[in-house]
């Protein structure tokens, strides 16, 4: 998956891949596992704002970060039960403006 968007002063670029493994565990029963890995890049150019205000907290401060994103999930399916659980963004990311 490749995703790019630009909204105002913000720009995001994501590239990710997914993998799933399906393990038969009985008659019409399946246990599935999935992994997701990707790289995300976020950029914000607050200095490009031309509002006329001179907020020194935002002037000429480009915010840019690139981080690794991992996800995991599993699913159990049978004729009488369908249950699953997933965790997106296992590695937390934080943006800070000093």
Number of strands: 5
Q: Would you tell me the overall average pLDDT?
A: 86
Helix content: under 10%
Calculate Rg over CA atoms.
Answer: 21 Å
Main sheet characteristics: 5 strands, antiparallel
Question: Which residue ranges are poorly predicted, with pLDDT under 50 across at least 5 consecutive positions?
Answer: none
First and last CA, distance: 33 Å
Q: Helix tally?
A: 0
State which percent range the strand residues make up. over 45%
Lateral arrangement of strands in the main beta sheet: 1-2-3-4-5
Describe the global form: rod-shaped
The sequence of SSEs as H and E is EEEEE
Provide the structure class.
mainly beta
Comma- or semicolon-separated keywords:
mainly beta, 98 residues, 5-stranded antiparallel beta sheet
């Amino acid at each position: 998956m490749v995703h790019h968007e630009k909204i105002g002063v913000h720009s995001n670029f994501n590239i990710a891949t997914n993998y799933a493994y399906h393990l038969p565990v009985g008659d019409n029963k399946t246990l599935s596992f999935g992994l997701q890995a990707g790289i995300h890049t976020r950029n914000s150019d607050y200095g490009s704002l031309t509002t006329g205000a001179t907020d020194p907290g935002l002037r000429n401060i480009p915010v840019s970060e690139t981080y690794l994103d991992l996800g995991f999930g599993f699913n159990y399916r049978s004729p009488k039960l369908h249950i699953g659980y997933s965790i997106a963004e296992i590695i937390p990311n934080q943006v800070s403006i000093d």
